[in-house]
Write a structure and sequence with these properties.
- The strands form 2 sheets. The protein has a 5-stranded mixed β-sheet with strand order 2-1-8-6-7.
- Helix 4 packs parallel to helix 13, helix 5 packs parallel to helix 7 and helix 11 packs parallel to helix 13.
- The protein is elongated, with a radius of gyration of 28 Å.
- It is 40% helix and 13% strand.
- By secondary structure, the chain is an alpha+beta fold.
Length: 356
Amino acid sequence: VGTTSYEDGDTFLFVLEKIMASLKIEISDGYQTEEHWIMFDDDEKVPLKVLLEENFTIDFLESAWGPMLVGIETVTTQDGNFIAIEHNGAYAEKGIDTLDFESGDTFRFELTWWDMDLYATYIIDQFLEHHAQSYVDMGSIYVISALYHLGVLADFNLEMVDIDIDEATGGELVQAIMIGSLLEEDISDYNEALIDMVSTDFLFSAALFNMVLDDSATHDAFVTAVEQKNVGGLDSDTLSMIMLALAKLDQIMLIEPIHEAMVDNLYTGTYGVNAANLAMAIIGISGTGFNPDSLRYNFDEDVSIFDLLLQYHAGDGSFYYQQDDETVDLGFSTPQAFLALVLYMSEEPIHPFIFE
């Protein structure tokens, strides 16, 4: 009023207005969060449950402990999860019918998994729905292997790769040998080409090549290279692949030191902890008969690498490379994590690159 200008004939009306109180409501499916503000009359405050019913579509189940929220907007519970309620950043100690609140408070309703096995099954289903066929089209050995061992490969259109053998890379030859064997094609030319390409200079690729080849000289050279190598300096991805190759070649006595080196290097490698190396560790351990639950995150008994890997899930079956990435990693983390979950959820060890 000290600075408002006016002129002859103006009218000023001073009205006592009631200021409504407000709550901030956050609704999350575990991946994406929606924010809402709802208003309420602080003089005639109603229970939180009533405010929610007036402003959102909610579902709840009546129980001896009061109403249990099982749905709010598009977030609904299923077997293995529940809607966690936070009040100003802390887990609510009361239900939605008895929670005390005041203007300016924030409530967060987030879908939270308590059964990690059911969560893994959900992620596998999401991958099958949203990504599987595109990876089959690309000839992803990780995804094709996972679909085969899951028993659903026949549901997808698998076709032989079309490559020029003389110009093909080692990875392309591996794809051709693997897909060709599943389709019962003649793969002898691909085998011969890959044998000529095998080198023990890079043990990751050497291990992968040895898993799809049936050539004693190549196998002997690989085993000798592993015996002479200081494996402590290798990354966990390479160590996991070496474990799988040694298991394929029945070199069981050599696996234990490789496993120990992988455990030591999993969190101290050049690339740090990420979804790709966690997935490869689970693949290597599961495929060689070790228990992935024995690998605790940073030796923390409360967190397994399986639980940690699930934290990288982006919501549709894809995975982030790092948890704070803005885009998912469809090149490495996603297909490798899918295979890791399939192997982990199996009731018995499955070698991912052995097909019967």
